[in-house]
Write a structure and sequence with these properties.
The chain is of the alpha+beta class and 139 residues long. The protein contains four helices and four strands, in the order ααβαββαβ.
Length: 139
């Protein structure tokens, strides 16, 4: 992402030396070179999580589920839950892990309470083994 340098704000942060050393050791081990971009990414993640908690702005959430497709009525209930919340679902993709287990990734956009309602509906479906959520926002 190209950043307009005329609109950048500079600020100073004071942290314990051991915290900075640990951060830089971890960050630079990934072949990254820009500490400012690292801080911007952390700030974006924090803001996304706050939006997830407060529900006051639209967010994106990727809801990943793993389930046993041999459980009676599971796929029908899964489809019904997605149709009931169709206004927040942008798309989904389905992967066969093995003969009985599937992974589905559902990309959503909406207020967090809408997305959490969808997740609650998924949690009530027998046969879903796991549900993981990754939150992002436009910032």
């Amino acid at each position: 992402m190209q950043i307009d340098s005329s609109k950048l704000a500079r600020f100073s942060v004071t942290v314990p030396e051991n915290l900075l050393n640990e951060f830089e050791s971890s960050y630079y081990s990934e072949n990254r070179e820009n500490r400012s971009e690292a801080i911007r990414n952390l700030m974006r993640g924090y803001i996304s999580n706050e939006r997830w908690k407060t529900g006051n702005k639209k967010i994106f959430a990727t809801v990943t589920i793993v389930y046993d497709h041999h459980i009676p009525e599971l796929t029908g209930k899964l489809t019904e839950a997605q149709h009931d919340c169709g206004e927040i679902i942008l798309c989904s993709t389905h992967v066969h892990i093995n003969h009985s287990t599937c992974l589905e990734c559902i990309i959503t956009k909406g207020f967090s309470d809408e997305i959490q309602k969808f997740i609650a509906a998924l949690k009530n479906i027998r046969g879903i083994k796991s549900i993981n959520v990754n939150v992002s926002s436009e910032i």
